[in-house]
Amino acid sequence: MKSTFYYKTKRTTINVLIHIFLLTVALSCLLPLVWMVSSSLKTQETIFQDMSILPREFHFENYYLAWKEGGFGRYFLNSIFYTTSVVLGIVLVSSLAAYAFSRFQFPGKNIIFVLFLAAMMIPIPGSFVPLYVLLNKLHLRNTALGYVLCMINVGLSTSIFLLKTFFDKMPKELEDAARIDGCSKLGIWWNVALPLSKPVLAVVVVFNALNVWNEYFLALLIFDDKRLMPLQLALMTFQGEFITRYHLLMAGMTITVIPILVVYVLMQKYIIKGVTQGAIVG
């Protein structure tokens, strides 16, 4: 009969191996970010010569040059506007649609939901041609509204799926109590469903904010006016045909990362709750 010592040793060894694996994955994700920040504080000449994490001299002027030469001011405000508009639109539409799919009965409900799921399998580049034709016919190409509507469409399917899964397991007794208190269907959605779905909404917000903030190719297809372009276009300013100014490119990339990090830090407790508890309500 195997001793207790054997099982404790086995369990400890497995835990150590799991933690080593997780630390390796974490370091592989963090090292590129650390190198990016470190490179943003170096010069073009030393960026590949001085491989230390802490540079010998800190060149904070790289951030000023990146902001000024890349025209980050206009593009930064554009990306803030696009990201905020798209995320609000997705949260509003997807939560209403998901609640309707979860609680209401109407003809073709299952077929429509399956179509939304099928849309998740279509890669974004696969929809470029129909989106371009549709926007042309609606006279929305080269407009901020057209871009916002396209990006809302891109994020709807996944968001509806996540929220519907949550609403399906939400106790109906809570809605019955709200209905007794005089809440309408819209009131139940606003006062009961949305507050309880904060963990899932946090995942939806971060996922879609990251998607919109990093988007470039769809904007390049829709916009002709460079003044409407998002922030990612400014990064291309430092990547020329014959030379790439890596120190300014890294400084620009660091600037673009900061807003997403802020969003994640503000919502991390809801994200962790959503991941660890899944669809548990309350």
The counted number of beta strands is 0
Helix content: over 70%
Beta percentage is under 5%
Low-confidence stretches: 278-282
CATH architecture name: Orthogonal Bundle
Which CATH class applies here?
Mainly Alpha
What are the secondary-structure elements, in order, as H or E?
A: HHHHHHHHHHHH
The average pLDDT is 85
Corresponding CATH superfamily? MetI-like
Biggest sheet statistics: none
Describe this structure in words.
This protein has twelve helices and no strands. It has 282 residues and is mainly alpha-helical. It has a single domain (62-277), classed as Orthogonal Bundle (MetI-like fold). It has helices spanning 4-39, 61-69, 72-103, 109-119, 128-137, 144-168, 172-180, 185-196, 198-213, 217-222, 232-235, 246-277. The longest helix is centred in the N-terminal third of the chain and has 36 residues, at 4-39. The radius of gyration is 24 Å and the shape is globular.
